[in-house]
Write a structure and sequence with these properties.
It is a single chain. This protein is α/β, with parallel strands linked by helices. It has an 8-stranded parallel sheet with strand order 5-2-1-10-9-8-7-6. A two-stranded antiparallel ribbon has the order 3-4. Helix 10 packs parallel to helix 11. The protein is globular. The termini are far apart.
């Protein structure tokens, strides 16, 4: 797939997410502005609250402050025709349409749109059944790797491409990501990029949540990134969930120019340029050690923003578990995490040992 080939310019993705707030005209305005700012791809999210969170998740800290994210997601649910229209409009602007599904319903909607590529968000990297579904689509996959360890990434890649002869290098691009909003530039450890590419034999990119429009994207390209994703907004004062950390058009355009300059300069000259401009010590902190580990700003979220198995009702000890009693959801802060998602198929028919309150994670000791 040429988009992941370093012989080509890096694929630049404007993450529009849900910042349209269900307004089709706002979505089209954002697509137009992103294209004019230099984005080659506009990315969206198909949101259905029940696929992502339990209603008892409580408040979640986001760039705009603490909100009841489940309730907010409910307001962002739109019919499938909405995504069909924005896909058509995106492609009419000569841009690649990209979208993130969060469960089987949103995946089904996206599949019916015949996407040319699909993106898996970091919290869904361990969502086994979703990855298995997408592995049947035969489209390139962008796999984000925030709040993950090497073993988590390996498991995800094996699930997406389970056969030894799958065309891994051309079908998957691993996006290095720090899942914090905003993420400090110094937590990015960009020397990890060539190491991840060497370990897993895949192209790499970066999904950047830092505030600075240039540093992480340009330095990532100098380290071999073939994809750069950054949140985009019309104004940071808009009410979208990610607007406070997104780039406005002028800054997004600045990022695009910095990425293209980095591609022309090459690694050493790009690093030297930013060391001279920003200071050697600061740039070295951004480049990091190259050793894969959880970033300091996201360490406390491991197994909380990721997926695990949660009860969908109050389940009494001695009951036989059946489909519909549980789901694979993000835990966040209020609830306890449960079993890893790959245990989902093994739970049906099991007898519970303990009472399991609605919303809480189902653990080994509970069945």
């Amino acid at each position: 797939m040429k988009e992941f080939d370093k012989k080509n310019d890096a694929l630049i993705i404007a993450e529009l997410g849900t910042s349209h707030n269900g307004d089709i005209q706002k979505a089209k305005e954002m697509i137009t502005a992103a294209g004019e700012a230099g984005a080659s791809c506009a990315k969206f999210q198909i949101v259905y609250a029940d696929e992502i969170l339990h209603p008892k998740t409580g408040e979640v800290l986001l760039p705009g402050g603490k909100i009841r994210l489940y309730d907010k997601f409910k307001t962002l649910e739109v019919p499938p025709d909405f995504y069909a229209e924005i896909k058509k409009y995106t492609e009419s602007r000569g841009m690649l349409f990209l979208c993130t599904p969060f469960g089987m319903k949103s995946a089904s909607i996206l599949k019916n749109l015949n996407p040319k590529m699909v993106k898996i968000a970091s919290p869904e990297l361990n969502f086994t059944s979703l990855l298995e579904e997408i592995s049947t689509w035969d489209v390139p996959v962008l796999l984000s790797s925030g709040v993950s360890r090497l073993g988590d990434i390996e498991n995800a890649l094996e699930t997406l491409l389970p056969t030894p002869h799958s065309p891994l290098p051309t079908q998957i691009c691993l996006l290095h990501c720090v899942t914090a909003y905003p993420a400090p530039e110094t937590d990015y450890n960009l020397r990890l990029l060539p190491n991840l590419s060497a370990i897993f034999g895949v192209p790499v990119g970066v999904s950047d949540h830092s505030i600075d429009p240039e540093l992480v994207p340009a330095l990532a390209v100098s380290m071999g990134a073939s994809v750069v994703e950054k949140h985009f907004c019309l104004s940071r004062n808009d009410p979208g969930l990610d607007d406070p950390i997104a780039l406005e058009p002028a800054d997004f355009s600045k990022m695009v120019k910095a990425v293209r300059c980095a591609e022309k300069r090459g690694c050493e000259e790009t690093i030297a340029h930013y060391k001279d401009e920003k200071g050697s010590e600061f740039v070295e902190q951004i480049l990091g050690s190259g050793i894969k580990k959880l970033a300091a700003c996201e360490r406390a979220n491991y197994r909380l923003t990721n997926r695990s198995i949660h009860a969908l009702r109050d389940i009494a000890a001695g009951e036989v578990l059946k489909k519909g009693d549980y789901a694979v959801l993000r835990t966040e802060k209020m609830l306890r995490p449960g079993l890893e998602p790959f245990w989902e198929k093994a739970l049906e028919g099991r007898i519970t040992r303990n009472d399991i309150p609605d919303g809480e994670g189902i653990r080994f000791e509970d069945v």
